Amino acid sequence: xxxxxxxxxxxxxxxxxxxxxxxxxxxxxxxxxxxxxxxxxxxxxxxxxxxxxxxxxxxxxxxxxxxxxxxxxxxxxxxxxxxxxxxxxxxxxxxxxxxxxxxxxxxxxxxxxxxxxxxxxxxxxxxxxxxxxxxxxxxxxxxxxxxxxxxxxxxxxxxxxxxxxxxxxxxxxxxxxxxxxxxxxxxxxxxxxxxxxxxxxxxxxxxxxxxxxxxxxxxxxxxxxxxxxxxxxxxxxxxxxxxxxxxxxxxxxxxxxxxxxxxxxxxxxxxxxxxxxxxxxxxxxxxxxxxxxxxxxxxxxxxxxxxxxxxxxxxxxxxxxxxxxxxxxxxxxxxxxxxxxxxxxxxxxxxxxxxxxxxxxxxxxxxxxxxxxxxxxxxxxxxxxxxxxxxxxxxxxxxxxxxxxxxxxx
Amino acid sequence: xxxxxxxxxxxxxxxxxxxxxxxxxxxxxxxxxxxxxxxxxxxxxxxxxxxxxxxxxxxxxxxxxxxxxxxxxxxxxxxxxxxxxxxxxxxxxxxxxxxxxxxxxxxxxxxxxxxxxxxxxxxxxxxxxxxxxxxxxxxxxxxxxxxxxxxxxxxxxxxxxxxxxxxxxxxxxxxxxxxxxxxxxxxxxxxxxxxxxxxxxxxxxxxxxxxxxxxxxxxxxxxxxxxxxxxxxxxxxxxxxxxxxxxx
Lengths: 410, 248
Description:
Chain A is an alpha+beta fold. Chain A is built from 15 helices and twelve strands. In chain A, helix 3 packs antiparallel against helix 8, helix 10 runs parallel beside helix 14 and helix 12 packs antiparallel against helix 14. The longest helix of chain A is centred in the first third of the chain and has 39 residues. Chain B has a 13-stranded antiparallel beta sheet with strand order 6-5-4-3-2-1-13-12-11-10-9-8-7. By secondary structure, chain B is α+β, with helices and mostly antiparallel strands.
């Protein structure tokens, strides 16, 4: 049997190159199809990854702890005490890689010319840096030095709208737990740029201790954001934090905090598969056609082989093998092409031309394609399985030829 | 020799701080002068825009630095609207919806009743005394009066957006002019006083006009019709229940 299958393998390989022009065209078609599958899914993966990352940087953290009523009414009344005791211990040990307690209240910021509603973030810069939730880029000046820094840091877009600039004073206004006006003047010590202009206009950073003093809330905070650096693994460690936080605090993972993001993520995998199947279904018509042609040309030859005693199963085997060679060569070509095109683009594709539309989806002006090996594996599996299924029909028909009729065919 | 220099320097410093104190005193006196210990006034506010103009007649009470109550008398559709401000907090009452609403901090820099005054201007009238450092810029004589020009620079962390304010006060404590400069040293808005007459036993500027420099054809003018100072006011005047159910 070993000898026979080797002969069949050699026959299949040689048959493939009998009409090398047709084979090359088919190879090219499969290669481009595979390339398109991988390239498209890399773009999509890049988009969703970026949306999740942007989303998590704004949230921030993969797990957040709040006063139970804070999310429905984010006012200063619904503050929580700074983490202590058991909760603090849980936050300090792995897998938690970073956590930050922050004051987050709605506020108004006013310059001489204008005033706007913003979200005021009282942060501890060191903790936020570990969490990765600092603004992407400081355009002018500096970020806050510590939690007692008396300045504020504004987004570039907000500074423009307020007609203020670095070094000028602005007034921030909010209210304390007794609903009294709490306000103070602060100097703009830095101007940041965010990937999304809407974030630039929404978030104003100030020192946490300074805000706590202004709002007269002692050491209370609005939220605690916790990160362990892998957003896909959050379910494994969130329950421990929840236990430590006790019943008086609400502990939620990012999937619960931002259900849109989490559903985007699960949708993406399904979407990639559908895309691949669609591309390949279109491709398989070409494949079936080519194989049917190859069989049609060789009817007499197949009849002869059968007459000489070759079993139909071996003919089926030979044709499937021929198709497999074609598919594997196409896959190698496609994957190679995809790797060659995506790798240089991983540093980002500038899509600022359509940035406004993309921003509505929570994306920046640069798209970073992400080549994931599971996408390559999935496309390979789709191509092999569907390709062989599609070739089954012409191969089956060839195997069922009647040798006498086949030989007499002119 | 050295001690002379030290002495001169010391005297200079002393003089500077005395002058600063004097400037602050002048502002203090000017504020006291137009608010009195207590005061009651009847006034008409005219809001002027290029394409429309409207007037409201109002009555106002004040006590000390931190309590003010204003009630609209006319026109009919605004009659009964009231604004109470105590300690920098502000409430409004509208009879049509029969509600007292606390003006949230987010609205404090919005305009007051559609005028060129902001809610903050109304509720934090006298904050200028403590929130600013005052220096006497110059003194001039005009029409038999001495006029002090005082520059007031807000403290670093005062809740004030202005870079500085320049006030002109006459020697009978009438505030003639208040300029609001931004931090680029550009004049943004001006409060001007006019038609100074004796009223309620004091010299009072009966017309106050607030306008932005950039839009000269938009302004708000408050004309005082009558004013009384240092009268006895009922203890419950500056309360929320009185805002809702007027008893005077």
